[in-house]
Amino acid sequence: MTRVYSNPDPAVAHLVRNAIDQIGVPAIVRNDGTATLMEIPTVATWAEVWVAAGDRLGEVEQIVAEVLTDAPADAEAWDCDCGETVEGAFGACWSCGTPAPEAV
Q1: Beta-carbon neighbour count of residue 18 at 10 Å?
Q2: N or C: which end of the chain has fewer CB atoms below 10 A?
Q3: What interhelical angle do 10-22 and 57-68 show, nearest 10?
Q4: 100 touches 86 (CB < 8 A)
Q5: What is the mean pLDDT of residues 64-86?
Q6: CA of 86: how far to CAs of 19, 70, 100, in Å?
């Protein structure tokens, strides 16, 4: 298993995991409930995304980068195929991980 991403916000880690799942690579989120443990150093409580991607690790890293790409703050909201309305600032759907449509 390889850690490909970490973030103090478990919701962001799950967004990344969902995007990785979309390309058929199983991914898990670890530490998504440990942020309230005060005796552990802060970074040790960050949610982490782990994959067993093997030869697809480069593809996984590219997906992570795409999900984390900042959209313009004034971008319009968009409707995902899964039925969710997503704020324009997000590069992917928070619910299913589908990347935002390209600007026309």
Answers
A1: 20
A2: C
A3: 130
A4: yes
A5: 79
A6: 15, 14, 9
**Integer Cα distance of 47 and 50 in angstroms:** 10
Q: The tokens of 60 are what?
A: 């996984």
Q: Is 69 exposed, middle or buried (0-12, 13-18, 19+ CB in 10 A)?
A: exposed
Question: How many other CB atoms are found less than 10 A from the CB of residue 36?
Answer: 7
| No. of helices (H) and no. of strands (E), the chain | 2, 5
Q: Write down the residue that tokens 């703050």 correspond to.
A: 73
H or E, element range at 11: helix 10-22
Residue 27 clears pLDDT 90, i.e. is over it: yes
- Whole-structure pTM over 0.70, yes or no? no
Torsion of CA 49, 8, 78, 25, to 10 degrees: 0
